[in-house]
From TrEMBL:
Entry similarity comment: Belongs to the ABC transporter superfamily.
Pfam families recorded: ABC_tran (PF00005), oligo_HPY (PF08352)
The protein, known as: ABC transporter domain-containing protein
Alphabetical list of InterPro entries matching this protein: AAA+_ATPase (IPR003593), ABC_transp_ATP-bind (IPR050319), ABC_transporter-like_ATP-bd (IPR003439), ABC_transporter-like_CS (IPR017871), Oligopep_ABC_C (IPR013563), P-loop_NTPase (IPR027417)
Length: 280
């Protein structure tokens, strides 16, 4: 049985609110999840369900109003900005966002972007350069792109650079927030393959998407967020075969590639009504 030390990410009873006073609203409520080393958790939910809020809270970009976050066994919940900077510098956790321009500094060349986390961590320049080149090859990018800035790359190349930047420090945990949503089919397939290779190499991954189809092929387990609450979680096979929550059934109904035929419009409407507490 894996012990607690195998949990790379442990989120317990997490609450997040935005706004103050009458504008205060809840984005996450009582969310608990764990990701072990070598495991990929697929986090799915519709727009506004709180997926990005969860990612941003785990990365220390949004402050929790309740609950705890542990990364690599370290409780980061109450960290100040200074503590977060020093924690990030160690490269334990990395991220890839949907828009690679948010993961990359537009003023840095690709080489500088990839070197930065290694040099911040204290690696010598020569070995850092070697690691950058190796990583670049692993995401199928040619070295002639290294002197370019993000604006001089295609969308697919940029996302591969963002993935390479996340990987170069060999983090224990990577949060991928809609990493393939903005890509065309060919680039999507390439990035999904890189994610699969990563998973096989033992990195813990949280793969966030509104698209169950992209996640199902990669994730070991799936967690479903609905209106800020985790309504379902289980092994991918379990969730696909016997979804417990009406929202998960609704999601499954929209994925024609799975074994069952897609739900009819009437079936989807009935599930949606059930979710909204309306009589069916
Ligand atoms: N900075 C913010 N200030 C105020 N409210 C916010 C902020 N960011 C998100 N929200 C709200 O919190 C809720 C959850 O948003 P979040 O972006 O986490 O959802 P999501 O599932 O990632 O959606 P999407 O798939 O559209 O990115 C939504 O109601 C959203 O409007």
């Amino acid at each position: 049985m894996p012990g607690i030390e195998d949990e790379v990410l442990e989120v317990s009873d997490l609450d997040v609110h935005y706004g103050v006073g009458r504008r205060r609203h809840r984005a996450l409520s009582g969310v608990s999840l764990q990701v072990r080393s070598g495991e990929t958790l697929g986090l799915i939910g519709e727009t506004g369900s709180g997926k990005s809020t969860l990612a941003r809270t785990v990365l220390g970009l949004v402050r929790a109003s309740g609950g705890r976050v542990r990364i690599g066994g370290e409780d980061v919940t109450g960290y100040s900005q200074r503590q977060w900077r020093s924690f990030r510098r160690r490269g334990v956790v990395q991220y890839v966002f949907q828009d690679p321009l948010r993961s990359l500094d537009p003023d840095l060349t690709v080489q500088e972007s990839l070197l930065e986390p290694l040099l911040l961590r204290g690696d010598p320049r020569a070995s850092a350069l070697e690691a950058v080149r190796e990583q670049f090859a692993r995401v199928n990018l040619d070295e002639h792109l290294l002197p370019r800035r993000p604006a001089e790359l295609s969308g697919g190349q940029r996302q591969r650079v963002a993935v390479a930047r996340a990987l170069v420090v060999e983090p224990a945990l990577i949060i991928l927030d809609e990493p393939v949503s903005a890509l065309d089919a060919a680039n999507r397939v390439q990035i999904l393959q890189i994610i699969k290779n990563l998973r096989d190499a033992g990195t813990a991954l949280v793969f966030i998407s509104h698209d169950l189809g992209s996640v199902a092929g990669v994730a070991d387990r799936i967690a479903v967020l609905y209106q800020g609450e985790l309504v379902e979680s289980g092994s991918t096979a379990e969730v696909l075969r016997t979804p417990q929550h009406a929202y998960t059934r609704l999601l499954l109904g929209s994925v024609p590639t799975l074994h069952a035929p897609p739900a009819t419009r009437a079936e989807r409407q009935a599930l949606r009504a059930q979710l909204n507490g309306e009589p069916v």
